[in-house]
Structures are given as C-alpha cells and as structure tokens.
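Lecture 7 notes: from sequence to structure.
We start with the chain below.
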Amino acid sequence: MSFNCRDFFEIANYLLQNDTAGSHLDAARYRTVIGRAYYAAFLRARDYMSDFCNVDFDKDRTSLHNRVARYLQTSSDSKIRFAGVKLDSLRRGRSKADYSRDMIVNIKRVAESAISNSRQIIKELEKLRSGEASIDPDKL
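Predicted structure tokens for the same chain:
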C-alpha cells in the first residue's frame, strides 16, 4: 500500500489540536506541524502535476521544491497561481522550522497559518485533477 500524503496533513492537524501548553516540547511540536503541513501540500501538488498535467519530475530532480511551486504559478487559474505562491511561502517556513535554531516569533500562530494555507492549497489543487484548471510546463 502506498503512502497517502494526506496523512501528513492529518498528523500536522492532530499535533496542532492536541495542545500541550507549557510543555518543553511545544517548539518542536509546532515546527513539526509547519513541516508536515508543507509536505502535505507539496507532495499533493507534485503528484497531481505528474498524474494530471503530464509534468515529468523524474527527468530532472534538481530544485524540485522550487519547480513545483513555479509550475503552479504558470496556471491559467488565478487561485492555482496563488496556491503556488503560498506553497513557496510554506517551503520557506518549513526550511526555517527545520534548520534555524533561532526562536520563531508567534510559532503557534505560524503553525496555525501553515495548516490553513496547506488546506487551501490542497483544495485548489483539486481543480487540476478535475480538469477545471491546467498548468503549462513549457512556460518554465
């Protein structure tokens, strides 16, 4: 059975909802939420573009994370283009959560925003599956 990237969203949401206020693990939990919310949206976008838009990511895997967001930004649909902008913002947030040792100001709010943005991106990506929107891989 293959992994369902939706499970990343579910675990991120679960971690956010199961508050352990005051725990020494709060920062790690919120950082994990940010990362899993990003990967839920990123993997869905990559898979939908491969499956429904004939984008072949296997031939060139360099800068894959940047390219997925940029491909979305070539869509004829303004909400898909905006989903690409949000995905890139989530990627930057995920990088900061994963690699920066600096404190993230309002980290709980950042985690909540990551969940919200991931949910919106995934919703808009359904347009690629249904054929309501498309992307043009030749534009890159």
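Points to note: The chain has five helices and no strands. The first helix runs from residue 6 to 17.
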